[in-house]
Design brief:
Length: 64
């Protein structure tokens, strides 16, 4: 698994703050995960081959 570095995420999104990076990635259709420290984990394969919006994994549904 190859993950983008923080510097690469900043270069890709043009943003410094994690929330702004997440919004930019969302608008580009690039899948990512939030790490416990708030930073973003972006797999290189998702940048090279972004999934169309209808192919993104569904959001988890929390059970009461």
């Amino acid at each position: 698994m190859i993950v983008l570095t923080e510097k690469e995420v900043r270069a890709l999104t043009g943003k410094t703050y994690h929330k702004a990076q997440a919004r930019a990635l969302d608008s580009m259709g690039i899948f990512y995960r939030l790490r416990p420290d708030g930073s973003l984990a972006v797999l290189r394969v998702h940048v090279e081959n972004p999934a169309p919006p209808d192919r993104l994994p569904p959001e988890p549904v929390l059970q009461p």
